[in-house]
Amino acid sequence: MNISELLHDAVDGIEPADRLQDIRERTANPQRAAARPWFYAAGATVLATAAAVTAFAVLGDDSATDPGPAHDGHGQETFLVPAYFVGDTPRGERLYREFDEAEGHDALDAALDRIQQPPSDPDYTTPWPEGSFGDVTVRDDGIHVDLLEGDLTDELAVQQVVYTLQGAAGEPLPVWFWREGQRGSSPVSALPQNDVLSLMSISDPAEGNAYEGSMIARGRANAYEATVVWEVRRPDGETVREGYTTATGTGDKLYGWETEVDLSGLAPGEYLFVAVNPDPSGGAEQSLLFTDTRTITVR
């Protein structure tokens, strides 16, 4: 399965979808070389399966001949993948998404490897150290991944794996976890987005991007009246640009938003781009707002 097959239109009804050529054009732009805007990711809960696997059951007669997940042996390639990481929100820890280039046997392998490495955004973390997973494959009944280290008692950590692999696959397939040749008793599906994802998320710019003149910011949100407020701040916290845009909807998931940010006239240097849900209380509940940030450089 190559990246063109993975980036198909199966999730057009789930989220706005950028086309692969558009992504390549953005990442080829020297002013946006680090940008990885891509909205292919699964999030709909369409499978009535267990939300977490905490025990591995011995299978029937077939288990003796089933080696579990395995790659087909071809070499490493570089893939553009979605990677979910853990970050703080007003409602406790939730998942945020980055788009990164990673190496692997295929897009699933690359995405799984990515979440075993430190995230690009220092505000995020990952509970999965390198060596946590082995092989990962897609079968008729879902995605199968070999768990080498750690356990599945941390529901958010499990959802991090599920959302990442479903995003790489381009469809909400259930995820089966294996350990030492034994498959878990039931697969895991993605929990509702509003329950596990930050309600404000920046997809583009990527952390550390550099721009001249202007930039396009994109992300996903479930915001009050679909309104996304944004600011550009100096390192000392002073706001030098501000505005708002509108997400494509409100409801039981996150919706895409996009805006052009004028950076003309700003002195070259480092700035913080901030996207935040508006406060319907008129300022009384600022500490409860969902926020995401990216450090950018103005040339």
TrEMBL record:
* InterPro entries in the cross-refs: GerMN, Gmad2_Ig-like_dom
Q: Where on the tree of life does the source sit, at the highest rank?
A: Bacteria
Keywords in alphabetical order: Membrane, Transmembrane, Transmembrane helix
> Coiled coil: which residue ranges?
none
- Is the Transmembrane helix keyword given for this protein? yes
Q: To which species is this protein native?
A: Nocardioides caricicola
Query: Which segments constitute the GerMN domain?
Result: 108-188
Protein name, per record: Gmad2 immunoglobulin-like domain-containing protein
User: Which spans are transmembrane here?
Assistant: 38-59
UniProt entry tagged with the keyword Membrane: yes
